[in-house]
Amino acid sequence: MSIEDAAAIIDEFASSWRALVAAEPPTGVAFAITDAASGGLVGCCGVDDWSNADVAQFGYWIGPSARGRGYATRAVVLLTRWLFELGAARAFLTVEADNEASAAVARRAGFVHEGTMRAHSVWQGERIDVMWFAALPLEWPMREPDEPA
Ligand SMILES: CC(C)(COP(=O)(O)OP(=O)(O)OC[C@H]1O[C@@H](n2cnc3c(N)ncnc32)[C@H](O)[C@@H]1OP(=O)(O)O)[C@@H](O)C(=O)NCCC(=O)NCCS
Fold this sequence. Notes:
Distance between the termini: 31 Å
Shape: globular
Radius of gyration: 16 Å
Number of helices: 3
Number of domains: 1
Largest sheet: 6 strands, mixed
Bound molecules: coenzyme A
Mean pLDDT: 95
Structural class: alpha+beta
Number of strands: 6
CATH class: Alpha Beta
Low-confidence stretches: none
CATH superfamily: Gcn5-related N-acetyltransferase (GNAT)
Order of helices and strands: HEEEHEHEE
Helix content: 25-40%
């Protein structure tokens, strides 16, 4: 990604936050994921879509040097809690079938694997299966606040 492309994405994040403040759905808003103690940046998570039926889809990534320490799992729990507080009736994420690290994050964060959509996407020229994970507010096991990591 070029500097210009990255700057454009950051501008889109800012625009999405302004829309949320103006009472529009949180589609496109993103959070930096930081270490709770040091404040150091480790990754990002954000809302890809918020449908007319109040279904929220989101995604996340952690920089390679910060993986393996639970940042993504904690970020997914906090983001999901925030989405439910905003009124989401369902939160879901899609995970490429061979992305075991991401599927593990989803499971640790209390998401249910609802199924796998075969040949649903194309990545680097290869057609791939995509797993579908979701949480519903009333059955999600991590609704209560937790201790800072
Ligand atoms: C998917 C991705 C975010 C997973 O990152 P991760 O660091 O493995 O996930 P977490 O931050 O939750 O860390 C989990 C690991 O930390 C360990 N861990 C340590 N402390 C922990 C804690 N307090 N809570 C949870 N896990 C903890 C876990 O045991 C696990 O280790 P393991 O991989 O050896 O089993 C990362 O691989 C990534 O950014 N990939 C590229 C982008 C991507 O695929 N995004 C998702 C698209 S759907």
